[in-house]
Design brief:
Luciferase, domain 3, GMP Synthetase, Chain A, domain 3, 2 domains, 5-stranded antiparallel β-sheet, 15% helix, flat
């Protein structure tokens, strides 16, 4: 954002950061419909090429086309402003392989019975960590149904270890992290305009 902007004042991304492209993408490919939540992807000369000596983390974060998956869940308002719905997540290490919680959360959000979800890593005796989903339901759905829903859409090492249905998302602490996640997602808005290539 523009460092000269007043706190809370929306700033157009294409004006603040030249040559940076942004899109709101679905879990794997394609953009989400206007007004629907999706993951913020960015691409440009300012974006990193990847993680040093960690190809799994790089593959989990950057697509083959060079888009960086930020892990931020966002949506575009009717007035064109970008609303950040949720904070960035840490990668979960499953048997030495990187799993992005945001990817699993986006999968679960595609299920019509899921209202809200938080995926965290928990210690696992065999794999080091395992992803567990805490889900707030908007309709009837059994944990086994949600486990199967995710398993049919992701690679084997990304499958959920467990689904826990809760009335609301509590303050959750991810494995290996001292940062607790708030029950109320951090929200804000910044203007991004429509993605375009600089001339």
């Amino acid at each position: 954002m523009d460092p000269l902007a007043a706190p809370g004042e929306p700033v157009r991304l294409d004006e603040a950061i030249p040559k940076l492209l942004a899109r709101i993408a679905a879990r794997a490919a394609g953009d989400v419909p206007a007004g629907q939540p999706g993951e913020l992807w960015i691409r440009g000369p300012q974006v990193t090429d990847g993680y040093h000596a960690d190809p799994d983390a790089t593959a989990a974060t950057i697509t083959r086309e060079g888009w960086l998956r930020t892990g931020d869940l966002v949506r575009i308002r009717d007035d064109g402003q970008l609303v950040i719905e949720d904070r960035i997540k840490e990668l979960i290490k499953v048997d030495g392989r990187s799993v992005a919680p945001a990817e699993l959360e986006l999968v679960l959000r595609e299920h019509p019975a899921v209202r809200d979800v938080a995926v965290l890593g928990i210690p696992h005796p065999r794999y080091g960590e395992a992803p567990v989903a805490h889900v707030v339901l908007a309709g009837p759905a059994a944990p086994d149904e949600l486990l199967a829903f995710v398993a049919s859409r992701v690679a084997t090492h990304k499958r959920l270890h467990d689904v826990r249905v809760v009335d609301q998302l509590p303050a959750l602490r991810s494995a290996g992290s001292d940062d607790a996640r708030s029950a109320t997602p951090a929200r804000g808005a910044i203007g991004v305009g429509r993605p375009h290539k600089s001339r």
